[in-house]
Design goal:
Helix content is 34%, strand content 31%. It is of the alpha+beta class and 195 residues long.
């Protein structure tokens, strides 16, 4: 039985549908209306080996904030649903990912508690039609909707495109590790007996 989820969320600001398969091949179909954001989600899918379909209709005439934040909410919900009871998974994941000048660290804990630590200052306000301040907003939304800890630290970087892309790919690799199974774990990896 596959670990997958389909989540839809409709508000006056956005209409979002996401389908996610954790144990996929990295295939994606993404249309958010923001080219650079599409590129980030496609990279997340490819490098985490998650099959991902994302369709967003947002109020881009206002700006990209609602589209990106709400996509984070829906993706977080999809992650939480797809992971299921968390029995047998590693729970923790981490990755340090280089991309030219950028070096991003991401560590996650699928602990059932939301927390985001985000340490990155982008040199540019915009990359294409994407506001770089929305990277933090996206991961904040994912953290709270998925009920997971996410720590992101930019260890070095000069190019905002490379920095954002390194973050999304590092998150993908860390999440892939955290959601993978370990034969030594028969229940959930917690002394409390639940996550």
């Amino acid at each position: 039985m596959g670990r997958n989820a389909k989540v839809k969320r409709v508000t006056k600001e956005t209409d979002i549908a996401i389908r996610m398969e954790l144990d996929g091949e990295g295939k994606s179909g993404v249309d958010t209306g923001i080219g650079f954001f599409d590129h980030m989600l496609e990279g997340f899918s490819k490098h985490g080996f998650f099959d991902l379909d994302v369709k967003v209709k947002g109020d881009l005439e206002v700006d990209g904030h609602h589209t990106v934040e709400d996509a984070g909410i829906v993706l977080g919900n999809a992650i939480r649903e797809a992971v299921g009871d968390k029995k047998g998974i590693k729970r923790y994941g981490w990755f340090v990912l280089p991309m030219d000048d950028a070096l991003a660290l991401c560590a996650v804990d699928l602990c059932g508690r939301p927390y985001l630590q985000f340490d990155c200052n982008f040199p540019n306000d915009m990359v294409g039609d994407f506001d770089t301040s929305l990277v933090k907003e996206f991961f904040y939304a994912v953290s709270y909707s998925a009920a997971m800890n996410i720590h992101i630290k930019m260890l070095s970087g000069e190019n905002s495109h490379h920095m954002a892309e390194a973050i999304f790919k590092a998150f993908a690799k860390a999440l892939d590790m955290a959601t993978s199974y370990d034969d030594r774990i028969s229940d959930v990896l917690s002394t409390k007996g639940s996550l």
